């Protein structure tokens, strides 16, 4: 857990921990001034991410801004976590893209709406804390799988090309993409813009003075947009529809799709991933300040309320976003007013300056998301995890691979099942203690049923997972001694083990008695 939270802390794009600082309580003008400044910083971070996530999800760019606005004005106003900021997240990009490709943009509102209602219900029933019980390896594997598919898909957007639908096709077709790019001057220019964006994202935080004034994502997008305009590069720009034109409330026909099994699976995936990512983010943000701790059930309900509103507007699903949340804390935010104000600035921008989106190159947004996808992959944690907890590392790798090979929902389910199986295996430790044991050399050939029986005590948790090992140990006991089996040391024994142990004891003692009877009949 510590590694994941530390990685979440590092995702904020800052150097060192000094920027986080303790959250000091203040009041009056000082508090408002701090929240006002922090809201501007978060707004500047949020704009390119909102637009980039929307474009990568296959929906109008304005829908990403709408989700960011709702995350500020609705979720930001509700209780739960006072400083974390919500909006569209890269973690759901792959799943949203698959849903839009399969069911259409019109059905997105229904999926998000039902997910929000489920989150509200789970929070009301006090299930928020249960999401903290999800295996960290599964969450890391989920994020790594999302990152891999996100990177693979955005490599095509980086070259102004259309990406294949499945994760495997995106990866297998990369050699063909490289060949196409090499033969196209326009594609090479688009790739150069995207690659330059990534370079700025990597290097910008090192210029501490510049990073304090302008966040890295906005600096990268601004520089790439300016270069594209000055050089008049023939590459694709973001398509602009206008805020009201982008809103698509779900109609009655879209609700009929809920009868399909695939749609329900997508809803559950939205709910599970959005809730888990939000609550893990809340735990990470709590480590960045010493202010009020998160109420997980209230935070889950706040996320549910936000997603319900987003669903009614036909917008993208939201989660708490660690990049914006960390920026909020590190900018000196004191209260929830900072995240509400960031929603206000997003609304003002979307209403007054929608045409500004039309000059942003798609390739530069792809570069932002490639960088974001890379940050989702726990490259620094994997080797230490393999050395100390190999089983957890295997779960992480398998979960990520399953997401790439199948889809988000099935990959997460496979990871959860592996985590449960691993836990069951590790908790079913059982061992055998034998007293009254004598070697066959000392007991002689005459030892039989008249000798004192071996007292065999089984301790631990006896489940069917350990039954082969347990029976192997029992089979190694001397066959000329009867056995008294003591199960009082077991904390748990399932039906399969209980029946197998009783059957083995009965057969073992029967064989010993039979062999002893045969020896008595044979003359010396």
Automatic annotation (TrEMBL):
Residues 10-19 have a biased composition (Gly residues). Residues 32-399 form the SLC26A/SulP transporter domain. The chain crosses the membrane at residues 36-56, 63-83, 103-127, 134-159, 187-204, 255-274, 344-374, 394-421. GO terms for biological process: transmembrane transport. It holds the Pfam family Sulfate_transp. It is a multi-pass membrane protein. GO terms for cellular component: membrane. Keywords: Membrane, Transmembrane, Transmembrane helix. It is found in: Membrane. The keyword Nucleus does not apply. Residues 1-24, 433-454 are annotated as: Disordered. The keyword Zinc does not apply. This is Sulfate transporter. It comes from Streptomyces antioxidans.
